[in-house]
Every structure is written in structure tokens, then in C-alpha cells.
Design brief:
heterodimer; A: alpha/beta; four-stranded antiparallel β-sheet; 9 helices; 26% strand; B: mainly alpha; globular
Amino acid sequence: MTVILQTQKLRVEYRNRDFRQANKVALLGLDLEVRAGEVFGFLGPNGAGKTTTMNVLLGFIPPTSGSASLFGIDVRQPIARQRIGYLPELTYYYKFLTAEELLRFYAKIFGLSRSETDRRIADLLKLVELEHASKRPIKSYSKGMQQRVGIAQSLINNPDLLILDEPTSGLDPLGRMKVREIIQRLKDEGKTVFFSSHELGEVEAICDHVAIVHQGELKAMGTVAEISAGHPNLEQAFLKVVGYQNAAAS
Amino acid sequence: MNKIFALAGVVIKELYRRKDFYVLFILTALLTFAAGSANFFHDAKIVRYLKDICLLLIWVSALLVAILTAARQIPAEREARTIFPLLAKPVSRAQLIVGKFLGCWLATGLALFVFYLFFAVITGSREQIWPVGVYLEAAWMQWVMLAIVIGMVLLGSIYFAAPSSTTTIAFIVVVGILFVGSHLNTIALQQGEPVQSILAFLYFTIPHLEWYDLRDFVVYDMGMAPVGAVALATLYAAAWTGIFLLLTWLGFRRKNLTT
């Protein structure tokens, strides 16, 4: 299967403003490979380097060394992001726009035709159940509605790879259900999903493959069955991998 | 180009959905009406005084619109974190800067159009003459000058995180250039070294925004400025704007957006 997302010896250091202190190393030579059609869970405790990895993949920060690519294209090239959708953990959208205007704006960025844009906006607003509020400014939406706008924008270009940063944290039950439905639907369509999460039960249910990072290093990568082997569930396996002693003893 | 126009469209929508422009326009209109209703010393040429006041208000208001709009673009995107979903799309940082510049410039142009239309109606109703060419030329020169200002403010906004800092510094620099810019060489001659060399250097390196002020042509009915001079001034503004946008891109292209 084609490799869709790849990092090789990816290292990221954050420069310390106090020159007397050493730079903070967020990633220490991370090697990741996500293949077409996989639903890939990216796990790790807080501060493990998950968000940094995503920031590099999305071009927000440059790697200190090593490389990262999407569809074989270096992530520093904007075109690498033509076939991806991204859903951030929290909603960050122009609140003075309506949901329809926001989706139209992103559709223009992707270069979609007017007819395709109209069709996709109608489909997505229906999917996230925001048709009734599509002409209202986003600032008037509830938090759950804003999250659903986020889901819609991440799908505007019918992406082949969806990158989700803790997609269900802070979502209402309807939002959580929608995210799971969308991941399942994309999986059925043969698309690739890469997401970080702390909800290990959810990861176990949805993912084919997982990677566990800790302190900037890859600690384990494989299918859910491979990682969980010898443990009651993925959560116990995760705790052992990240060195939580109680789990290791059990 | 579609991406740049899409980015510019959002900036323009933001301007007309915020209250800044409306407040400035209403203030300009109110002050002009108040000035126009006065009749000092039974001066029959009150229209000239009215024109002067109105054009000054238009200059200040347009500067405020340009500086306030440009100063908040990139810092607000970073603070509200809207820059992340945006840059997760196939948009380069250069396109983002050019789109923001174009949006600010077009939005300021729209504001200028409304201001000058108001000006033309007020003065036309008093004088019964409509020197459209003179007004268009004055508005064009002001708009072109604002392109330099917007480029300068965008550059500042990369380095000063708070829009208020960028706004204050930009306003001081612009007003300083407008008032002192053309006199720097004369002042330099009256100084000893090294101040003389510093002032002379400044005179030859700052963008001369004061060249774009055609208010006297309008107020004193001096007719249109030579087309060649306007064309040269336009090229000069394009060069300065290009320099500022290039410097903005150089500062922004490798910037870590997560800190």
C-alpha cells in the first residue's frame, strides 16, 4: 500500500529565549509511516510530542532536522496540503462569517468550481445538521455548533487524508457521534485518517494501527492487536509502554 | 490568484462588519456639517474652509482605517488561532501576506470612495461645480500612498505581537513623515555632524508620503497635477510597497506560529 504520511528522523527543537538554558527537544528522530486506507491513532501522554508532530505535518513549524512528507511531497510545500482535511482540537474560525461563507472561503482556497462548492456546502451542512443556521454568523453559534462547522470545513475538499487533533475532546455527544460516523465513513471509502487522542477506548474501536510516542520518541507502532498483545486492553498496553509502573506490575 | 482574492475578500467582509469605518464616516460627516454650518466673519469663501476641513478629516480617517485594519490582520489571526485551519490548506505564507495586503488596500479604497463621494456631494452642492478629474486624482494619490502605509504596517505587525503597539508606532512614523519628511534635508543642513549625515540619510531612505498629498490642488482649485508626475509617484509607491511586502514575507516565512 502507498505511504501517505511519512516522517524520517524528525527532530524538532524549540529555542529557549533564555540563552543560558538548553533548547527544548520536542521530537527526537521520529519515524512514522501511515499507509493509504489506514485509520491511524497517534497516542501519547501530554507533552509527548503529538501536537509538535502535527504542527510539522501541517507546515506550522519547520523541522530542526529530518523530513516529513504527505503524499510523497515535502510538508514545507503548500501543495502537500491540497488533499488533506484538518480538524483542530478547538474551534478557530472567523466569527464574523456565516458557516456558508466560511465554507465558501475554504472552497475557494482549494480552487473548487462554483457548482462543486454549492454541492459540497449543501451536503456538508446537511451532514453536520447546520442547514438551519447556515446564514447566521458563527459568533452566534453554541460551542457544539462551532465544532460541527469545524468538521464541515475539514471535509470541504473531499480529502484523501484527514488529520484530526483530539477530535472528540470538548465535543457534545452529537459532535462525538458525528466524528465517529465520519471516520467510519471515510474508512469505508478507503480514505486515510490520522488522529491523536487520549480516548483509548475510542481508538481501540476505530483504529487499524496505532503509534505511541513518549518524550519525543516513538515507543511502539503496529496494529491495535499487536500493541495490545499480552494486555487486557489498549489502555493497559499504553500505560506500560509509557512506563506507568502500576500498569507494568499488573 | 484565486487564493489571494479569497483571502482579500475575508478582510473586506471584516471591515464592513466591524463598526470602525461607520464610526469614522459618521464623525467625518458630522464634523463637516458642523464646519459647513458655521459662518465666520460672513466669509463668502466658506466653501474653501469647508473643503480644507473635510479633506483633513478624510486623510485622518483613511489613515486610521488603513492602519487599524492592517495592524490587526496577522496578530489577530494568530491570537484567535484562525491561522492554523487556514495554513493547513494549500496556502503559502507569501499568498497569505499578499492576500491580506490586497484586502486591506481594497477595503481602504472602498472607504476612500465613500469619503470622497460625500466630499464631492457636499462641495458640489455649495459651489455647483464638479471637478471630477481633480477629485479622482487626489483620491488615487491618497490610495496609492495608503498602499505604502499598509505594507509598512503589515511589516510591523510581524514583529510587534500587539496590534495596539503596531498601530501607535505606525501612526507616529506616518504622521512624522507627512509633517517632517520633506523638510529633513533642510533641517540636516542646519545641524552639525553626525546629526547632519543621519538626517540626510533618513531623507533619502524614507518613503516620502507627503508627495501624495494633493489637498491644496483641490482646495485652491489648482487643476490636475501632471499625469507624468502621478505615474512616477505611483511607480515609487509600488516599489516601496513591494519592498515592505518582501520584508514582511522574509520575516514571516520561517516564523514559528505556535509560540
